[in-house]
Design goal:
With 102 residues, the chain is mainly alpha-helical. It is built from two helices and no strands.
């Protein structure tokens, strides 16, 4: 295996690129495409891993949206049910003393 040599300029550029990519992704943008080379032959695996991260982010985002929509529908239905129950009870309805509800 070849010795890996990383100079300060290369490390600095990589760090800046990763920070910029993180800001783009955190802002909801897509992960930037990059032509990647690897001194140890793992560029393909790294690209596959990064695509998997993006896919996982999209799946979690979709699941969160679906969950929020379902919770919103449930709250609306609960509110409607509360109104129907209140409308069906006569004015002055109360639980008799000494009895708990339900």
């Amino acid at each position: 295996m070849n010795d890996v040599v990383l100079d300060d300029a290369m490390l600095s550029a990589s760090g800046q690129y990763l920070a910029t990519a993180a800001q783009i992704i955190a802002g909801g943008g897509p992960a930037p495409e990059v032509q990647m080379r690897s001194a140890i032959g793992v560029a393909g695996e790294v690209k596959t891993y990064l695509r998997g991260l993006v896919l996982a982010q999209l799946a979690l985002s979709d699941a969160a949206k679906t969950g929020c929509l379902a919770a919103g529908r449930m709250m609306t239905e609960s509110d409607e049910l509360d109104r129907r129950i209140a409308a069906s009870l006569g004015s002055g309805y109360r639980v008799p003393p000494g009895r708990s509800w339900p």
